[in-house]
Specification:
Layout: E1 2-6, H1 13-29, H2 31-38, H3 51-61, E2 66-73, E3 76-85, E4 90-98, H4 107-121, E5 126-130, H5 134-142, E6 146-147, E7 153-157
Parallel strand pairs: 4-5
Antiparallel strand pairs: 1-2, 2-3, 3-4, 5-7, 6-7
Amino acid sequence: MKIIRFSHMIRDEKLLQALSEIWLEYMIENETTIQKRYHVKNSNGEVNITINKIKNVIKNLADSNSGVTILLQKEKIIGFITYHIISKVTAIITNIYIRKDFRGRGYGAILLKDVEEYLMLKGIKELRLYAISNSSIHFFKKHNYVLNSTGEIMTKIIV
């Protein structure tokens, strides 16, 4: 198991291609929520996004306020997590995804813990995220995130 964290431009084209492919899997699997943000499918139900568009999204993520962490097993990406720092003390977990055949083995927890620890070292004290499904709510509750009264936003104090 290997974790790679990027808070700068991903220059390795092979890695960027692999991350873009798993990101497309994530977008299609979560199309009802993600489609609104990235326009994954057109009105005919056809996939309406290219790997090149996804690469541009990923490239824009890797700056001083955002980052992506990937989890590799035998050089294959099995999952990723992304975040965006919105203030000196607050960050948002923007995406987390583990490939279907690797779920239920604790890999999501590994990614989440790594990002929490990294952001804590950067002075972040509060993490937020938008809950998009019952399974994600269950996952984050298991890791001490609290759902707000609207049932949409989860938070965790990581001091």
